[in-house]
Specification:
5 strands, Hypothetical Protein Ychn, Chain: A, about 120 residues, five-stranded parallel beta sheet, alpha/beta
Length: about 120
């Protein structure tokens, strides 16, 4: 099974990097069931995993996009020190996301066939 790691570094809103990364992840999840998608949220992207996001009608919602990725089998990890630095360590996160470490990211990078950075 091919393994693809998508590393997101940017905030959920304000730019479209997280949006485009999740569009890709969800496209892979829809079209390629035999591909394992891994998503690692770093820096301001740690905010992507905060639960209960509210966006205006007609505007994309990163929480919904992440939940779709998870429903399609993607694993989602969040840099623990990045989350802590942004005051997110004790905030409610999207179900099935988990705080992680650089050691786990390192393992994912080495074990993945492709690493894409947004």
């Amino acid at each position: 099974m091919q393994k693809i790691l998508i590393l997101i570094n940017d905030a959920p809103y304000g730019t479209e990097k997280a949006y485009n990364a999740l569009r890709l992840a969800n496209g892979i999840g829809k079209a390629h069931e035999n591909v394992e998608v891994r998503i690692f949220l770093m820096a301001d992207a740690a905010s992507c995993a905060v639960a209960n996001q509210t966006t205006p009608n007609g505007y994309y919602n990163i929480e919904r996009m992440l939940k779709f990725s998870i429903a399609k089998g993607a694993a989602v990890k969040i840099c623990g020190s990045c989350a802590e630095a942004r005051g997110l360590k004790n905030v409610q996160l999207i179900e099935k996301t988990e705080l992680s470490t650089m050691a786990e990211l390192t393992d994912w990078v080495v074990d993945s066939d492709k690493v894409l950075t947004f």
